[in-house]
Predict the 3D structure of the following.
Amino acid sequence: MSEASMNEQRLQHLEAVIRADIAAGLYHGAVMKVARGGELAFDKAIGAEDAAQTKPLKADSVFSIFSITKAFTNLLVMRAIELGQFSLTTRISDLVPGFTGKGREAITVFHLLSHQSGFPITFEVKPGMYIDHFDEMIAAVREVMYPAEPPGVRVAYSPLVNHVLMAEALRQTDPKKRSYRAIVQDELLTPLKMKDTSVGLRADLKKRHVVPDFRGNYPIGHRGHSNLGPNGAFEEEHAEMPWVGIASTVPDMFRLAEMLRQDGTLDGARILSPAMLAQARRNWTGEKPNELYTQRAKERGWGAVPAYIGLGFSLRGPALCHHMFGTLASEGTFGNYGAGSTLCWIDPERDLTFVCLTAGVMESNANIERFQKLSDIVISAAN
């Protein structure tokens, strides 16, 4: 792509809008990369880690990426399917020892990836429990989590249960019997040269870590065994939380997004096949609403929101509705997001890659509006 593939004036406007939002106190700061055809068009660190704007963000600031962590787990599940460890049609009860009874046997890996498992929308398995030790989390899920309805009936975004189960499936079927942390490192971070990304907050990343400021915008805390505060799990070095616990930088996340843009391969490292990614980018939820976001949309008087979920990816789809990927994105745009602060998407039709990690967690609907606005500006900059 030539430099003319993105409109410079529109990208300058993008920066001005972000700075105005920060000045208005909507959030503290943002680090963003935008590229077209792999060529960087926008690469900025704007604002700060804190509300007082005393700690400027840098290009290599380390963020807790929240639910974009799920993308790593999803990719590893898809990789395991390609390697024959299990399949989309495998029952999760066949992969997770002791996870049987009361309808659990009907749930497949496909249902977990597409958020159609039938489990209730659960933000914490047991109120107030520590969440940073994976063995304790899978034990709690085995003990108390049962489907509320048969799989496939509704689309109900799973904040954690689905990815605890899929991470355990990865551990149980791994030929090398590795931990979740080791699988992520060996199969994703090392081949993609994501040197500033870790499961848990690796010790050498701590000085650059943007400690999450939830500002009352999340329904629960995230406690870790070191008792570092109500959301201290995000500061635990040895945390294994396959749904929310990875720390990363924009440059590293950009490498992951570029691998996806290039059909599963980056710089000679093949993570997934084009065939698998083609399946993953299909809309497997039809026009069913996303029950979680439909509930939240009602707070603003918005209509029901179609889920548009593939295998682990959120999709833009055709509906004109509030959407973090923007109203101008092509239907096939796909990506992942994290609570009130993080977003990555790829628009294959326009060959655009967008990565943005921010400080100062926003309320869900306000975050959707914020990222919709920024995404539309970016897409409008494509010539």
Notes: The chain has two domains: 3-66+194-220+227-380, 74-187. The chain is about 30% helix and 15% strand.
